[in-house]
Amino acid sequence: MPWHQPFAVPTGPVFGTWREAAGPQPLLRLQEAVLAGTAREHREHDYRTVRIGDLYLRSLDGTVTRMPDTKATRAVFGTAAGDDGPYPQIRGLLASDAFTRGTLAVASGPSGGDKAAAEQALLDRMLTEHAPVFTKDALWVMDRNFPGVERLKRLTAVTHVLVRLKSDITICKIGDFLPDGSYLADVCGGGQSIRMRIIEYHVDVAGQDVPEMFCLATDLDDHQAYPAGMLAAAYKWRWDGSETALREDKSAIHGAGPSAGPIFRSGSPDLIRQEHAAWISACELVRSLARAAARAAVPARKGRRSGQQVHPREISFTAARRAAITAVRAGTATASLPAPVRSDGRAQAITKLGKRRVTIDRDRHREHKAKTRQAFPAAGRTITTRTAPAVITVCRPLAA
Known about the structure:
Order of helices and strands: HHEHEEHEHEEEEEHHHHH
CATH architecture of one domain: Alpha-Beta Complex
Structural class: alpha+beta
Strand order of the largest sheet: 3-2-1-4-5-9-8-7-6
Distance between the termini: 48 Å
Oligomer: single chain
CATH topology of one domain: Transposase Inhibitor Protein From Tn5, Chain A, domain 1
Helix content: 25-40%
Strand content: 15-25%
Number of strands: 9
């Protein structure tokens, strides 16, 4: 192949010049192609682990990612903490499959201003720029940042929603309670209203004396096909589909500056857009590799998932990322598996990756924190340093 030729890794200045000359557009087109491929793959393969009637479960959530503080990046992107924020940040909104964490669409923009308003503006853009993603065979779970009567009307015209409402949103109950405990109501705001089905339930949280109340609104008014218990259970997948996915993505961008957390490396707005698109594309290609490994993996022979088809969430994201990096360094351009009988290195790599599984559905809980990797705990003052002479043992060669 023409690219299988000796080459020298470019120096930093040379590589930076190439990036400047290319600009963000090639990576944005690559991102569009990768996400389109992900959406097509999810139409071809049914990865659902929980049935929400006949609907696929999707998730929407946003996040901010830091970048080096330059005059240009601060002027274009701003900071979520206002003018006093230590780092400029880019805000991204990701539309994901709730079960595989696969990214289906992305919209990005400045991080400054009110968080809810900024993410709502990105969702409005996404509805226009990525309209094919929002279909009538999907149910989108969203948190309290996204409601708005006009926005809900626009969403329910093309897809289905399950959105948590803030306590200050006015709802006017219509009629009696339905057999499953839900009820119809008019959700009001901005001088408009929309008829929705309301589901209210309490969640006991460890460490809190008073249970937390959840109020969900959905356009699915058939309580027999979509009972309240089913939809309440579906909403918790927002954490797995969005929060966990974003934490996995951010685990790939760290160690770039004085801060130990996730941060981009570029210093100009165009290169930040380029790097953001490259990051999204790379993470989704890693998940595509994990999905391929799951499809080829042999079900477990024992344990609580014995005999069940391996799900993409069982494949470690970190293991998949390392496998992808290893394949690139080895010069293997692809890790596809077109036939089940293949025995070359690519098939072997996917087979090995299929064995790198994590335990899922443990129903673990943690306090709500920013979508970032865990900070490394600082050493306490109680740790003492001990010294001891090193003992070196040299293995004797075997006798002839």
